[in-house]
Design goal:
The protein is of the alpha/beta class. Helix content is 53%, strand content 8%. A 6-stranded mixed β-sheet has the order 1-4-3-2-5-6, with helices on both faces.
Length: 381
């Protein structure tokens, strides 16, 4: 099977015709977040029947080409692990995909343990995908023939794979479960444009919670300095300099740019080109009065946190019900209901199926296999 590299709308006539005529096609996206400052959309791969196109959205705007087929609910769009790609398509192209079929979801509802595409293809089709370009910089141009062929393989086998998984789902009576999950995942794209809650950047740095207020303030300044350089270079921030070296700089408080070269992991070129500016900013923090310092946000938690004891007891009871139901249908417990959803159920204390369904993360199929047993607990609250 060959592929077509589409770098302009003039190259896309065959793809446009194929998308108009087909009832389903496979889709995948590549982004550059591992290498670049921005995780922008860099490639869109599509397979219709036995033909694959690799579309370059950095060379031209493919939105007019892709919008109608991707937003047509009567066309099935086969993807694998589509969550992030849906967000990319919505954010970068303004496309709200409909007709989703996700092979990772299909496999999870069958009870498959290894949900990666490579593992599924090897197990189900005997196809072994190359790993050569897993960490490729998809924003780099020109793309090599090897990179394009690697990208094309991500959609080449999806139609055959989904047919096999769909047959297994039908045999288990779980087709409607998958359909419900597809629809729920499509909503991810609808929310992609909503502003995210602003998070203090130092909470993402390991061991930052041990810093005193002046050091915490200095770390924020150092992270901002790094972010400006990363944006200017269009490089991922960790590729400019990692968190540990910045943390060491804040703690050791070097006086000269030359001293930065002695900090483990701090690039010598970065110290030479931008070290003086970093130290200038850190000296300004050293002169700030105490009332202007910002300590580490002590109340911050990465998740919902541990529930209070009275609620934790309820969650434990809900877990026991969930575990029994999951074992009964042969699925991982988290696939049936995650612990975070159980905590939300405990907090909401629903007394009916309708109220239970308002909890984020609930599905009709989940309520069908475990809903009434959960309500037996929450109705007593």
């Amino acid at each position: 099977m060959t592929y077509h590299h589409v770098e302009s709308s003039d190259d896309a006539d065959g793809l446009a015709a194929a998308l108009r005529a087909c009832s389903r096609f496979a889709l995948d996206c590549e982004a550059a977040g591992f290498h670049r400052y921005s995780d922008r959309l860099c490639l869109v791969q599509l397979t219709v029947d036995d033909t694959t196109w690799v579309v370059d959205p950095l060379a031209f705007d493919p939105t007019p080409l892709l919008r109608d087929p991707l937003e047509d609910p009567d066309k099935s769009v086969i993807m694998h692990g589509s969550d992030f790609d849906l967000r990319l398509l919505s954010r970068d192209l303004g496309i709200r995909l409909r007709g989703l079929v996700d092979t990772q979801i299909q496999a999870s509802l069958i009870g498959v343990e290894s949900l990666g595409l490579a593992a599924l293809l090897e197990e189900r089709l005997g196809v072994k995908l190359s790993k050569k370009y897993q960490r490729a910089d998809w924003a780099d141009r020109p793309l090599t023939e090897g990179m394009l062929a690697y990208a094309a393989d991500d959609t080449r086998y999806l139609a055959t794979l989904t047919d096999l998984l769909a047959a297994d789902l039908a045999e288990l009576g779980r087709t409607s479960w998958a359909d419900e999950e597809f629809t729920a995942l499509e909503r991810v794209a609808d929310e992609a444009g909503e502003p995210e809650e602003e998070i203090d950047p130092i909470v993402r740095v390991k061991r930052a919670r041990d810093l005193d207020p002046r050091e915490a303030t200095a770390l924020r300044v150092a992270l901002e300095w790094r972010d400006e350089i990363a944006r200017e270079r269009d490089r991922a921030t960790f590729r400019v300099v990692g968190d540990p070296p910045l943390l060491d700089v804040v703690r050791s408080n070097p006086r000269r740019a030359e001293d930065l070269k002695d900090v483990k992991g701090f690039p010598r070129g970065l110290a030479h080109e931008h070290g003086k500016e970093l130290l200038r900013r850190l000296r300004a923090v050293a002169e700030l009065p105490e009332e202007e310092l910002r300590p580490y946000p002590r109340g911050y938690r990465r998740g919902p946190g541990r529930p209070p004891p009275e609620l934790e007891e309820v969650v434990d009871k809900l877990k026991a019900v969930r575990n029994s139901a999951a074992d009964g249908v042969g699925l991982p417990r988290g696939t049936v209901l995650s612990n975070s959803v159980l905590l939300s159920i405990a907090r909401a204390a629903p007394t009916s199926i309708d109220e239970l369904m308002t909890v984020d993360g609930m599905r009709e199929w989940k309520a069908g296999i475990v809903g009434e047993r959960l309500l037996e607990i929450t109705r007593t609250l």
